[in-house]
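Quick one, tokens below:
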């Protein structure tokens, strides 16, 4: 899911056989990579728990990554608790950056987090700008044409409404104005599936509003421009807990999300082996517990298990 911080630079990718895929899953247009906050802001050190190096996983790394000694990881922002800047700093925190850092520790690699719009991630990986993404991305068959996937936690869909307003659930989406995030699973899979049910029942279509981050969507909700916001459950649970004007109206469809890895078999094998050790560690439980996401824990890092 998500998004931005400060200024940006960009490039374009709309090429050949990938064009239809990128348009249908993540957009095809400028790749936005956002600058850090002002240089005057202090930078924190790595606050993730210690984790032993997995030498077997290190041995699987492709030579290019091993020589670089750095994983380039695309992560969006402005979506606490999954990813956000620690207040007053240039340090990206949240479940996704911390999981990315644990993978790096297991592989004995530095982690270079690149902050990008969610809908720029797939084109960026296809263009070779990033090695992987840890962005709460749902593995789908279409996305697997551009990346391989390794599960790392689970989450569901959630719907949030203005407190005291009319409830909106997965069964009452027809005819509603629903805010979703650009390029998200909710936009590309969840809404189309429920649209089919609306049509079959002779009900009005869902009126979808697209936003680059949840804060924009919630602003549209509280100003009356949307009836509800549909997004990942940890994000909307966090938003509800921190905004007395909101309430959760529904949660549903819990399933794993996955690290998206560039189509390099050796790197996929290395990340999969690293995640096996991450998921089995106390560090994994500590990271998810830190952000109130204990329910997101999984026990197996499946590879390319499409949703």
């Amino acid at each position: 899911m998500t998004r931005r911080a400060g200024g940006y630079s960009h490039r374009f990718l709309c090429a050949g056989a990938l064009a239809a895929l990128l348009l249908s899953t993540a957009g095809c247009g400028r790749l936005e990579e956002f600058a850090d906050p002002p240089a005057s802001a202090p930078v924190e050190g790595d606050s993730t728990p210690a984790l032993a190096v997995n030498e077997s996983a290190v041995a699987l790394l492709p030579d290019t990554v091993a020589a670089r000694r750095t994983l380039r990881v695309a992560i969006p922002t402005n979506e606490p608790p999954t990813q956000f800047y620690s207040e007053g700093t240039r340090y990206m925190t949240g479940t996704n950056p911390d999981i990315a850092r644990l993978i790096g520790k297991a592989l004995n690699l530095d982690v270079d987090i690149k902050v990008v719009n969610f809908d720029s991630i797939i084109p960026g990986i296809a263009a070779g700008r990033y090695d992987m993404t840890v962005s709460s991305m749902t593995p789908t068959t279409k996305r697997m044409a551009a990346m391989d996937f390794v599960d790392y936690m689970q989450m569901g869909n959630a719907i949030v409404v203005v407190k005291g307003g009319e409830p909106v659930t997965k069964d009452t989406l027809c005819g509603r104005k629903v805010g979703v995030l650009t390029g998200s699973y909710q936009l590309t899979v969840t809404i189309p599936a429920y649209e089919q049910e609306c049509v079959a029942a002779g009900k009005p279509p869902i009126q979808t509003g697209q936003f680059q981050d949840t804060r924009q969507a919630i602003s549209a909700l509280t100003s009356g421009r949307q009836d509800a916001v549909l997004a990942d459950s940890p994000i909307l649970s966090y938003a509800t807990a921190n905004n007395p004007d909101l309430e959760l109206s529904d949660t549903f469809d819990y399933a794993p999300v996955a690290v998206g890895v560039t189509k390099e078999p050796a790197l996929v094998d290395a990340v999969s082996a690293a995640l096996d050790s991450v998921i089995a560690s106390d560090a994994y439980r500590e990271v998810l517990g830190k952000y109130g996401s204990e329910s997101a824990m999984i026990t197996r890092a499946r590879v390319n298990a499409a949703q």
